[in-house]
Amino acid sequence: MSKRVYNKTPLSFTDQLALLKSRGISVTDEHKAISFLQEISYYRLSAYFSPYQSVKDTFNPGTTFKQIIDTYSFDRELRLLVFDCIERIASFFDLHPTVFISWLHSLTYVRNICAHHARLWNKELAIKPELLLNPTGDWISKPFNNNKRSFYFLCVLKYLLLRANPGNNLKVKLENLFAKYPTVPIKYLGIPTDGTGNMLNWQDEPLWQN
Fold it and tell me: Which of 80, 156, 162, 187 is least surrounded, with the fewest CB atoms within 10 Å of its CB?
């Protein structure tokens, strides 16, 4: 069987921006937007589109190109923060062997995500950390036990850091990051809601009190 040959010509950066605009995104500075497309690439940015599209290939009303860039930037800084935490964790305490092995695999997996500039925001983890059912010390309540999403992994990091580096400031760094990008919907990290659409306050969880 002969191979199918694709002769589709790649879109120029100007045409990529025109395509985005035709799909409903608002652009205030076209020159700056084209510079971002050149620097980051349309393909990499496209991973951040879906939460802003209720209908495929159509942006929700009011979505701006700046929102997409802010979401990309938020995710990049989140990856750097997580990468730094993983690098600092040198030992593990108070973990069942099954949980220990699972968390080790997840740490390696997420470290590779961060190191290779892949997306961590709005990510379903392919290698998820085992649920911690019998914690020693402060942990999170059941609504936060979504171990397929990034926020549970952040809780894993915090639990380990409290033992490996008790003076860590992961909570403050997260609070600063969330405040820096107020338009980025952090619920896509896996922070649960109360059933009416309001996010539960993660800072109130026992794990995050320190």
Answer: 80
pLDDT, tens digit (0-9, with 9 covering 90-100), for 37-62 = 999 999 999 999 999 999 999 999 99
CA distance 112 to 121: 15
The domain locations on the chain are 1-63, 70-209
Segment 181-198, tens digit of pLDDT:
999 999 999 999 998 889
